[in-house]
Amino acid sequence: MDYEIALKNSWNVVKDNLVTFIVGLLIAAVGSILIVTIAPLAYGFTSMAVKGARGEQIEISDVFVGFNKDDFIRSWTFMLIYIVIAAILGQIASILSTIVGILFMFTMPLLVIKGYGGIEGITESIEIIKTVPVESIVVYVIMLVLNMIGALLLGIGLLVTVPISTVFLANATFELSGE
Protein backbone atom coordinates (compact mmCIF):
# COMPACT_ATOMS: atom_id res chain seq x y z
CA MET A 1 0.00 0.00 0.00
CA ASP A 2 1.24 3.46 -0.83
CA TYR A 3 0.22 5.41 2.29
CA GLU A 4 1.15 8.76 0.82
CA ILE A 5 -1.16 8.29 -2.18
CA ALA A 6 -3.94 6.95 0.05
CA LEU A 7 -3.71 10.01 2.33
CA LYS A 8 -3.55 12.37 -0.64
CA ASN A 9 -6.61 10.75 -2.24
CA SER A 10 -8.46 10.83 1.07
CA TRP A 11 -7.67 14.53 1.52
CA ASN A 12 -8.91 15.28 -2.02
CA VAL A 13 -12.21 13.47 -1.39
CA VAL A 14 -12.77 15.31 1.89
CA LYS A 15 -11.66 18.67 0.44
CA ASP A 16 -14.11 18.30 -2.45
CA ASN A 17 -16.95 17.34 -0.06
CA LEU A 18 -15.93 19.23 3.07
CA VAL A 19 -19.31 20.73 3.96
CA THR A 20 -21.10 17.44 3.32
CA PHE A 21 -18.69 15.53 5.56
CA ILE A 22 -18.83 18.14 8.32
CA VAL A 23 -22.64 18.23 8.33
CA GLY A 24 -22.78 14.43 8.19
CA LEU A 25 -20.36 14.13 11.09
CA LEU A 26 -22.30 16.68 13.14
CA ILE A 27 -25.55 14.80 12.47
CA ALA A 28 -23.89 11.51 13.50
CA ALA A 29 -22.37 13.01 16.65
CA VAL A 30 -25.47 14.87 17.83
CA GLY A 31 -27.82 12.09 16.73
CA SER A 32 -25.79 9.53 18.68
CA ILE A 33 -26.99 11.09 21.92
CA LEU A 34 -29.96 8.74 21.49
CA ILE A 35 -28.01 5.54 22.07
CA VAL A 36 -30.08 3.47 19.66
CA THR A 37 -28.87 5.70 16.80
CA ILE A 38 -25.11 5.29 17.40
CA ALA A 39 -24.59 2.19 15.25
CA PRO A 40 -26.72 3.20 12.25
CA LEU A 41 -25.29 6.73 12.17
CA ALA A 42 -21.73 5.37 12.35
CA TYR A 43 -22.67 3.02 9.53
CA GLY A 44 -24.10 5.91 7.53
CA PHE A 45 -21.04 8.10 8.03
CA THR A 46 -18.81 5.19 7.02
CA SER A 47 -21.03 4.72 3.98
CA MET A 48 -20.32 8.35 3.05
CA ALA A 49 -16.58 7.65 3.30
CA VAL A 50 -16.84 4.49 1.19
CA LYS A 51 -18.80 6.33 -1.50
CA GLY A 52 -16.18 9.07 -1.49
CA ALA A 53 -13.35 6.55 -1.76
CA ARG A 54 -15.14 4.97 -4.74
CA GLY A 55 -15.43 8.36 -6.42
CA GLU A 56 -19.22 8.41 -6.10
CA GLN A 57 -21.29 11.51 -5.32
CA ILE A 58 -21.78 12.00 -1.56
CA GLU A 59 -24.93 13.51 -0.05
CA ILE A 60 -25.76 14.52 3.50
CA SER A 61 -28.70 12.11 3.44
CA ASP A 62 -26.18 9.24 3.12
CA VAL A 63 -25.55 9.50 6.85
CA PHE A 64 -29.02 8.00 7.38
CA VAL A 65 -28.57 4.82 5.24
CA GLY A 66 -27.80 2.85 8.40
CA PHE A 67 -31.49 3.10 9.31
CA ASN A 68 -32.47 0.79 6.45
CA LYS A 69 -33.65 -2.47 8.04
CA ASP A 70 -30.75 -4.71 6.96
CA ASP A 71 -28.12 -2.03 7.60
CA PHE A 72 -29.60 -1.23 11.01
CA ILE A 73 -29.38 -4.90 12.04
CA ARG A 74 -25.91 -5.27 10.49
CA SER A 75 -24.58 -2.17 12.26
CA TRP A 76 -26.01 -3.13 15.66
CA THR A 77 -24.83 -6.74 15.35
CA PHE A 78 -21.30 -5.46 14.86
CA MET A 79 -21.66 -2.82 17.59
CA LEU A 80 -22.89 -5.35 20.17
CA ILE A 81 -20.05 -7.76 19.38
CA TYR A 82 -17.56 -4.88 19.56
CA ILE A 83 -18.96 -3.60 22.88
CA VAL A 84 -18.85 -7.05 24.50
CA ILE A 85 -15.30 -7.80 23.33
CA ALA A 86 -14.04 -4.29 24.16
CA ALA A 87 -15.65 -4.45 27.60
CA ILE A 88 -14.12 -7.85 28.37
CA LEU A 89 -10.69 -6.82 27.12
CA GLY A 90 -11.00 -3.49 28.91
CA GLN A 91 -11.72 -5.25 32.19
CA ILE A 92 -8.80 -7.63 31.70
CA ALA A 93 -6.51 -4.68 30.93
CA SER A 94 -7.83 -2.79 33.95
CA ILE A 95 -7.22 -5.75 36.25
CA LEU A 96 -3.74 -6.35 34.83
CA SER A 97 -2.77 -2.68 35.09
CA THR A 98 -3.99 -2.59 38.69
CA ILE A 99 -1.91 -5.67 39.52
CA VAL A 100 1.16 -4.16 37.85
CA GLY A 101 0.49 -0.85 39.60
CA ILE A 102 0.40 -2.56 42.98
CA LEU A 103 3.45 -4.74 42.30
CA PHE A 104 5.55 -1.82 41.05
CA MET A 105 4.28 0.96 43.33
CA PHE A 106 7.27 1.03 45.67
CA THR A 107 9.82 0.95 42.81
CA MET A 108 10.31 4.67 42.22
CA PRO A 109 10.80 5.50 45.91
CA LEU A 110 13.23 2.56 46.17
CA LEU A 111 15.22 3.90 43.20
CA VAL A 112 15.60 7.19 45.06
CA ILE A 113 16.04 5.80 48.59
CA LYS A 114 18.44 2.97 47.79
CA GLY A 115 19.88 4.07 44.46
CA TYR A 116 18.64 0.88 42.82
CA GLY A 117 18.42 0.21 39.12
CA GLY A 118 15.00 -0.52 37.66
CA ILE A 119 15.09 -4.32 37.99
CA GLU A 120 16.37 -4.19 41.57
CA GLY A 121 13.66 -1.69 42.49
CA ILE A 122 10.93 -3.79 40.90
CA THR A 123 12.25 -6.94 42.60
CA GLU A 124 12.26 -5.30 46.04
CA SER A 125 8.85 -3.72 45.44
CA ILE A 126 7.42 -7.18 44.71
CA GLU A 127 9.16 -8.52 47.82
CA ILE A 128 7.53 -5.80 49.94
CA ILE A 129 4.13 -6.72 48.45
CA LYS A 130 4.72 -10.42 49.22
CA THR A 131 5.84 -9.61 52.78
CA VAL A 132 3.04 -7.18 53.69
CA PRO A 133 0.29 -7.65 51.09
CA VAL A 134 -2.59 -6.16 53.09
CA GLU A 135 -0.67 -3.03 54.06
CA SER A 136 0.53 -2.63 50.46
CA ILE A 137 -2.98 -2.84 49.05
CA VAL A 138 -4.19 -0.33 51.65
CA VAL A 139 -1.40 2.07 50.58
CA TYR A 140 -2.43 1.62 46.93
CA VAL A 141 -6.11 2.24 47.69
CA ILE A 142 -5.36 5.35 49.78
CA MET A 143 -3.25 6.79 46.93
CA LEU A 144 -5.92 5.90 44.39
CA VAL A 145 -8.69 7.56 46.43
CA LEU A 146 -6.58 10.67 47.06
CA ASN A 147 -5.85 11.12 43.37
CA MET A 148 -9.42 10.35 42.33
CA ILE A 149 -10.57 13.15 44.64
CA GLY A 150 -8.01 15.44 43.02
CA ALA A 151 -9.16 14.44 39.55
CA LEU A 152 -12.82 15.05 40.43
CA LEU A 153 -12.01 18.66 41.26
CA LEU A 154 -11.57 19.41 37.55
CA GLY A 155 -8.07 17.97 37.71
CA ILE A 156 -6.85 21.04 39.58
CA GLY A 157 -7.03 19.13 42.85
CA LEU A 158 -4.27 16.87 41.51
CA LEU A 159 -1.87 19.75 42.15
CA VAL A 160 -2.41 18.98 45.84
CA THR A 161 -3.30 15.28 45.91
CA VAL A 162 -0.38 14.05 43.76
CA PRO A 163 2.25 15.55 46.09
CA ILE A 164 0.36 14.22 49.13
CA SER A 165 0.12 10.72 47.67
CA THR A 166 3.78 10.78 46.56
CA VAL A 167 5.00 11.78 50.02
CA PHE A 168 2.62 9.20 51.51
CA LEU A 169 4.14 6.54 49.24
CA ALA A 170 7.66 7.61 50.24
CA ASN A 171 6.70 7.31 53.95
CA ALA A 172 5.09 3.92 53.32
CA THR A 173 8.19 2.74 51.43
CA PHE A 174 10.47 3.76 54.31
CA GLU A 175 8.26 1.93 56.80
CA LEU A 176 7.46 -1.19 54.79
CA SER A 177 10.98 -1.71 53.41
CA GLY A 178 12.57 -1.44 56.84
CA GLU A 179 14.53 1.72 56.00
Uncertain residue segments = none
Oligomer classification = single chain
Spatial extent as radius of gyration:
25 Å
Please tally the β strands and state the result: 0
- The total of helices stands at 8
Inertia-based shape: elongated
Mind summarizing the main beta sheet? none
Label the structural class: mainly alpha
Mean pLDDT, to the nearest integer, reads 94
Helix coverage percent: over 70%
Distance between the termini: 58 Å
What share of residues are in beta strands?
A: under 5%
- The SSE string, one letter per element, is HHHHHHHH
Give me the secondary-structure topology.
Layout: H1 3-16, H2 18-31, H3 38-54, H4 69-104, H5 107-114, H6 118-131, H7 133-152, H8 158-177
Textual characterization of the structure:
This protein has 179 residues and is mainly alpha-helical. It is built from 8 helices and no strands. Helix 2 (18-31) runs antiparallel to helix 3 (38-54). The radius of gyration is 25 Å and the shape is elongated.
Précis, in short:
By secondary structure, the chain is mainly α. It is built from 8 helices and no strands.
Descriptive terms for the model:
single chain; 179 residues; 8 helices; elongated
